[in-house]
Amino acid sequence: MEVRRKDREINLEESKELLQRAGVGILSTVDEEGQPYGVPVNYVYEDDTIYFHCAVEGHKLINIKKNNRVCFTVYGENNVLAEKFTTTYESVVVFGRAKVVEEAEKLQALKLLVGKFSPDFMKEGLEYIERAANRTLVVKISVDQMTGKRNNPHKK
What we know:
By secondary structure, the chain is of the alpha+beta class. The protein contains four helices and eight strands; from the N terminus they run βαββββαββααβ. Pfam families: Pyridox_ox_2.
């Protein structure tokens, strides 16, 4: 999917940097009746792959099982400039395919998540992974397409 506002498009490297920097993304799936479902998830981005953890059952997993095509959106800077009738923003939209990963990849992804969100508590995080791994699934999104945009009227 192409960005409509080419003047606001950011390049692939900037898009990847925002994916690495942001902490929460919106995972969008569709159920078997066509009902969209968007849910915020903490995630990590590594090697053109997005990983997030979740419970072993739930709405998003049911949707992914029926249709593994997903959309994942993150945003960074976001400020309303009331006097200019605009907003500063930066965002990335990813289209890809999601699937639950197996044990070795699951453990690696959980370690990456601990490293991103609790880097000062790696020892405790690894112990937590050991205790909670059987109650947790990890889903990976293989990126098919990615686009990014930014609006910063201060730089114009």
